[in-house]
């Protein structure tokens, strides 16, 4: 991030390690002791490397060898998360299409609603889509990402046009032309349980480090849209892992579930995302939410480490 709209928040907590860092530490400790990166019961074999053809995987092992009782659960988790991603991508395109129709009918009020909806659907996908820097900048570029006086595009250009003025029809047309790239880029992405868990941790970390202290909605000042949408997507993705996680570590799964329940309540207490201005969220509320985000991400990272053996085994091709 370059300069961005900063929102008041008390002194930051000590930096915490992200999920990838936590797993890296576990791996280093295991190697130093001559053992495996993650402690596993004897009936949980270590992951076997070798990517599935035509499948994009992230964060670790590509193919695992889970025990028979968990194979179906690992498959189901991958299928459920894939369906979630496809639904969010389709909803994003639909919201942009509706936004374009609103502008054509000179309906600014509805256009604002649909722009915020499109932003929320994009937030559900940003961690997966951020690997493509060209597409990400085209769809979600901030005014602070470009030199002063230079143009920018995507959702935030449309946000500026709707709340402050600008070449709305041109910016919406450009966004509508780029939106279908999202489902295309994500259509063949298949993640195994470990990668799904780390995707969720990344989503929570993004809220803590970016969306919460620095509103991304520089003109509308409705940054809670990003916070609420990302947390909701993270909670849904964790739900996809639920059946498998309960087989692997029921106590830790229950703990993470409780963390998400608290997190959802914290976000809801801040107010309706699409109508609650950034300035109405107190520093104390931001700090409390930041702590709960950290606690949820940390607990989930430990659970995710136990899912390493399952890789993308049984993922759809």
Structural write-up:
The chain is globular. The protein has helices spanning 19-32, 68-104, 108-123, 126-129, 133-140, 155-163, 168-178, 181-186, 193-211, 224-248, 250-269, 283-305, and strands at residues 5-6, 214-215. It is mainly alpha-helical. The chain has a two-stranded antiparallel sheet. Helix 1 (19-32) runs parallel beside helix 12, helix 3 runs antiparallel to helix 6 and helix 10 (224-248) packs antiparallel against helix 11 (250-269). The protein has a single domain (68-310), classed as M75 peptidase, HXXE motif (A middle domain of Talin 1, Up-down Bundle), CATH 1.20.1420.
Look at the structure and give the CATH class: Mainly Alpha
Helix count equals 12
- Low-pLDDT segments: 1-64, 312-317
**Percent helix range:** 55-70%
| Rg, nearest Å | 20 Å
Observed structural traits:
A middle domain of Talin 1; disordered N terminus; two-stranded antiparallel ribbon; 12 helices; 2 strands; mainly alpha; 317 residues; globular
Layout: helices, strands, pairs:
Layout: E1 5-6, H1 19-32, H2 68-104, H3 108-123, H4 126-129, H5 133-140, H6 155-163, H7 168-178, H8 181-186, H9 193-211, E2 214-215, H10 224-248, H11 250-269, H12 283-305
Antiparallel strand pairs: 1-2
Helix pairs in contact: 1-12, 2-3, 2-7, 2-10, 3-6, 3-10, 6-7, 9-10, 9-12, 10-11, 11-12
